[in-house]
Description:
The complex is a heterodimer of chains A (473) and B (414). Chain A is α+β, with helices and mostly antiparallel strands. A five-stranded mixed sheet of chain B has the order 1-3-2-4-5, sandwiched between helices. In chain B, 48% of the residues are buried. Bound molecules: flavin-adenine dinucleotide (FAD) and iron/sulfur cluster (2 copies).
Amino acid sequence: MDFLASLLRRFPQGRVLVDTASKLAYECDGFPLHRRLPLAIVVPRSTEDVRDIVKLCNEHGIAFVARGAGTGLSGGATPGDRPTVVIALAGMREFVRFDPDDRVAVVQPGLVNLDLSVAILDSGLCFAPDPSSQKACTLGGNVAENSGGPHCFKYGMTTDHVVGVTIVTADGTIRRLQEGDGADLLGLVTGHEGTFGILTELELRLVPAPEKIRTWLAAYRDMSAACRAVSRIVGSGVVPAALEILDELTIRAVEASVYAAGYPQDAGAVLLIELDGSRLAVDTDTAVIEAILAEEPPLTLEATEDAEQRTRLWKGRKGAFGAMGRLAPDLYVLDGVVPRSKLERVLREICEIGRTHEVTLSNVFHAGDGNLHPNLSFDGRDPIQRARALEAGREILALCVREGGSISGEHGVGSEKLEHMEFMFAPHDIEIFRGVKACFDPKALCNPHKAIPTGTSCKEGASAKAPGVLGAR
Amino acid sequence: MTAPPDLQRAYKASLDCVHCGLCLPSCPTYATTTNETDSPRGRIYLMRALAEGRIDIDDKSLRGPLDRCLGCRACESACPSGVRYGELLEETREAIGRVDDHTWRRRALRSWLDRFIAHPRGHRLSMSLLATTQRLRLDRASRALPLPGPMRRSLELMPKLAPSRERRPLETGIHEPKGPVRATVGLFTGCMMETVFGRVNRALLSILLENGCRVHVPAGQGCCGALHVHAGLRERARPLVDANIAAFGKDLDAIILDSAGCGSAMKEYGHWHEGAAAFANKVRDMSEFLDELGFVPGTKRVEYSACYDDPCHLCHGQGIRSAPRSLLAAIPGLTLKPLSRPEDCCGSAGIYNLVQADLADSILGRKIDDITRSGADVCITANPGCMLQIEMGLRRRGSKVRVLHIAEVLAASY
Lengths: 473, 414
Ligand SMILES: Cc1cc2nc3c(=O)[nH]c(=O)nc-3n(C[C@H](O)[C@H](O)[C@H](O)COP(=O)(O)OP(=O)(O)OC[C@H]3O[C@@H](n4cnc5c(N)ncnc54)[C@H](O)[C@@H]3O)c2cc1C
Ligand code: SF4
Ligand code: SF4
């Protein structure tokens, strides 16, 4: 029996989609510059369903890719370079178990990040990783991408909050990985970008919701002043829960949108600072922050401990990417990292790259950990603009690596950055990556041609010039 | 690729979408099925693909995703990029409608809209028939009959109709306020409000009079055409719009209505009917108008607790959220209990509940859960379709919660 017939026999109507409209809708994620029609979309409800899909794929040599909410920004959930089945996990969204004493939650991977924190609100606990897409993205996607968020500066990335997972590895075996299992397979799987298998259950660590939160919004005349304030804050030893900067263009786009937060429109940059923790700790650190703000005085300053006001101040930050859609039909969100000490200078060079290539460039970023998100706005229907945007992106990521940073802070490599891997990795690094993947996915069926260059495209691959990161050659 | 001429505007609107997905959680159909094709982003993507010629307008698979859209426009409220989803959808439905014009479903829909909704006599006749069926208990018997789904559902949806004396239309002509005249307004009576919820129009009239408005209820006004427009039948709505413009004339300060669905459609007449822009600018929802005017409540107490459900076409369609709440806050004795998701659609959405039964039921189920959890005695809303839908949901659960229109609550204070 052929592959599709077997799928249709195994799953009831409506759970295997092969119509034109469905295929179109699933051809890309939050990075629509890359797109490819899938062979079919399958909607599993359980670990066993997933196993059966993966087994069938193995029998027929068909590739497959997991998809959560499709908010990924690097093409991770986009069908690969050969006929691929999309395994759509957004409907597997059960809250399996909540153990407030042990501070863990067991969930299916399709549960939305924010829905978890809302469901446990009364317990005084929360799930710390808070990507700006948190009201839409799934926890499975978060674990697969090792996502970060504004508050990860203090609390760590998703990987610090995963206790265990159930994964159907690419050969169709159901495996349980747990923290402290010896070899840190769990750590390896977190951030695998869906290339080792399909996560079907997640055991997540919860943290106590802070007793007190204080948020400042400081509007500065220019970016340099905002960056100086950040350096001083970090230098002071205080660890804020979040330190975020939006530049002028972003402020204007946000203020024109439904996410308008009341940011001053004449400012060159706004800095969001947040402290959280025990009452005592917040009060002590507040004195330090306010002293710094006095030395680096902003144009306007707003501070609040009120939950509603806080939501308002954050609203603009959370809607920032989407708001850039007002500038042009397409948006390319970059995700480079640079050492914080170089932030200010690198930002200037990034803006220069934007000017050289004549693309509209705006910046919104996690200033605390030097994770930059330069946004390129352009009209992808025009091949020249498209090429310019891609080239500008390439140069910016190369710059980040030259300055001692990396090509991705949290959005992953996916298909988008395959061609940028050479900036960081030497051929033997890539060989090692391939070897690791092969342990999980010997037939190379699981999200093929993502995250690790396979060398089949002329532009991508590893460079003999790159320093390499995995030891000496 | 160039878009077909009748999709040019839709195509432009679709370009504002950057595919970020922030609208997904606000969409009731995506929340229910989690299919990308049932999400705003997926629908926009398909509509763009249609305009770009990547999917054929005859393709059957395009119909389902667009037919299942409630048109509630919660996605517009969530979208940071400002995608004008409502416009995009109407435009696309219009184009698809032209292609499907000959199918029996389409013809049936058209003739139903023309004869029973847009035509006052047909509408009244069908209501009298319904009242008779109810009196003779035939409606219960009919549930056992193998009637087509939509027909059976319309029977279930209908509340017990009041006797015809209470359903009589509002007296046309000019009604004078008690005190000095603060504004001269027109009252748009609507079709459903008039025939099913006549009491609501009466309540609105009394509030307006209490608040110093000289109220014109012109004869010759009729259906607003919203259902036609949502179904992609703008050309059939055009004569209805023209009739209303003629009936209300040019001399009024505002045209007030108590149906959020009609209001949202009327405010947008100008999008597709140039001659109707001036008229559209005068249209005000009753809450919006009273709040602007400076509402003076009565002194009688209403002793119950209530939750307020935001009709989609009021909060998402017209951006009206605080006005109804501040009016209600002024009513003596009323305790307001918040809903956890007041802006979620109830699944009514025009004729949606008749043609997309399953999806509408699960969307309704969530709304009823929210209402029951709030512990309120009364659910207040501001749109006839929502009133019918929520009443049906509560009836099915055997709940004691009553559904009232905001006008009835305000009027009870005098
Ligand atoms: C507006 C916006 C803001 C964002 N902000 C942030 C941010 O602040 N920080 C951040 O880190 N990211 C951010 N992102 C990126 C994105 O939201 C995250 O990467 C998120 O974790 C993706 O989740 P998803 O459910 O959408 O996954 P998808 O996009 O569906 O998938 C992402 C990857 O994970 C894999 N995957 C998904 N589910 C599973 C599973 N169950 N098992 C195995 N593999 C799986 C997919 O194959 C794919 O490779 C943002 C995106 C947008 C659009
Ligand atoms: S929120 Fe707006 S821009 Fe983002 S996917 Fe939805 S419609 Fe598109
Ligand atoms: S109008 Fe309502 S149902 Fe339709 S896509 Fe938008 S949110 Fe979803």
